[in-house]
Amino acid sequence: MLTIRWFRVTTLALLAWLMPALTSAEVCAVDDTGRRICLPEPAQRIAALSPGATELVWAAGAGDQVVAVVAYSDYPEMAKTVPSVGSHTRLDLEALISLRPDLVIGWVTGNPGEQLDALDDLGLPVFAIEPRTFEGVSSAIERLAVLAGTESTGFAEADAFRKGMASLRTRFQQASPVPVFYQVWDEPLMSVNDQHLIGKVITLCGGRNVFGDLDRLVPRISTEAVLAANPEAILAGGMGEENRHWLTRWAGFPELRATAQGNLFFVPPSLIQRPTPRMLEGSRLFCEKLETARARR
After folding, report:
1. 2, 146, 148, 207: which one has the fewest Cβ atoms less than 10 Å from its Cβ?
2. Measured between alpha carbons, how far is 135 from 59 in angstroms, rounded to an integer?
3. CA 49 to CA 30: how far, in whole Å?
4. Where is the signal peptide (predicted)?
5. In whole angstroms, how far apart are CA 47 and each of 67, 97, 202?
6. Using H for helix, E for strand and C for coil, what is the string for the chain?
7. Domains of the chain (ranges plus CATH)?
8. Residue whose C-alpha is closest to residue 285's, from 273, 177, 296, 297
C-alpha cells in the first residue's frame, strides 16, 4: 500500500514539474549579434524597424502580426498600410511604444544603437538581424518564423530561396568570367566589394568584381578608377525602379569595353539591394545580364 501511495505521489510530483514545460509556448532564437532572445509565447505584435526587416517578417509568414514599420517599407503592398514610426535612423519611440509590440525587429547596422538600447531598457525584446550571406537570408526567415509561430510558411519560403540560389550557383559555376562594375551610388560614386552580398551575387553569376578586393564593403571610387578597370559590363540600380540615368554617364565613354559592347545594364534596386527573398529574382536578372554580355563577345 505504501509503495502504491509513494508511486502516486511521485507521479503527481513529476507531472507537476513537467506541466510548465508541457504547457509553455516559449520560443527562442539567436539574432545576428549572437544574443539569444526568448519570448513567453509566439509574438503577435511585431515592429519591423527597417524596410528589409519588414520584407523578411512577411516572408516568414508573419505579415498579419506586424503593427509598426518605418519609412520606405514598401514591400509587400500591405506593408504600406501599417503605421509608420519614423525612419530606420530616427524612430518615434513614443509612437512605437503606444503600439505595444511584443517583438521588435532591428537592423544591426541600420538602426542607431542607442535607440535599440532604449527599447531594450524598456523591456521590449529586440531581435537584431542583417543577413550577410545567401544562407543568412534563409536563416533569418526561419528564425523570425520561430519567434512568430509561423514555421510552416517561413521554413517553406526559406527553403525555396535556398534551393533557388543553389540552382543559380550550379548553372553558372563554370561560366566564363565577366569583369563587372556594379554601381551602388552615384554622388559620391560607390561600388561594393566581394564581401558585400551584391558582390556575392556577381560571383554567383560568374562575374569578376573589378573592385572586389577593396577593404570597405561599399567603397568610394573615382571615374578614373572605373576607366582604368575597364569592365566588360556595368550594372546599376539607380535611385528608383525606373531611374536608369546612372548609366548615362558611362555611355559618354566610348573607350570603355562595357560601353563599346553595349553592356550597360539596369537592375531594379529593390531586387538586389535588400537581403530578402526577392534577391533570388534580382540574382536571376543579374545572371541574365552577364549571359548577354558573354553572347556579345
Report:
1. 2
2. 15
3. 18
4. 1-29
5. 6, 10, 33
6. CHHHHHHHHHHHHHHHHHHHHHHCCCEEEECCCCCEEEECCCCCCEEECCHHHHHHHHHCCCHHHEEEECCCCCCCHHHHHCCECECCCCECHHHHHHCCCCEEEEECCCCCHHHHHHHHHCCCCEEEECCCCHHHHHHHHHHHHHHHCCHHHHHHHHHHHHHHHHHHHHHHCCCCCEEEEEECECCCCECCCCCCHHHHHHHHCCEEECCCCCCCCCCECCHHHHHHHCCCEEEECCCCCCCCHHHHHHHCCCCCHHHHCCCEEECCHHHCCCCCCHHHHHHHHHHHHHHHHHHCC
7. 25-161 (3.40.50.1980), 175-295 (3.40.50.1980)
8. 273
Residue type at position 209? N
Cell numbers describing residue 71: 519609412
pLDDT at 190 exceeding the cut of 50: yes
User: What does the buried/exposed string (b/e) look like for 94-110 if buried means 16 or more CB atoms within 10 Å of the residue's CB?
Assistant: eebbeeebbbbbbbbeb
Q: What is the CA radius of gyration of the chain?
A: 24
246 — pLDDT class (breaks 50, 70, 90):
confident
Tell me which amino acid residue 81 is.
Answer: T
Rounded Cα distance, 149 and 285, in Å: 33
**What is d(CA 105, CA 87) in angstroms, rounded to the nearest whole number?**
14
Residue 229 CA to residue 257 CA, distance in Å, equals: 10
Q: Is the pLDDT of residue 279 over 60?
A: yes
Of 230, 227, 234, 210, nearest in space to 293 by CA: 234
Answer yes or no: are the C-beta atoms of 83 and 99 closer than 8 Å: yes
What is the pTM (predicted TM-score) of this model?
0.87
For the stretch 195-238, pLDDT in tens is 999 999 999 999 999 999 999 999 999 999 999 999 999 999 87
CA 235, CA 247: separation in Å to the nearest integer?
8
Residue with cell 565577366: 178
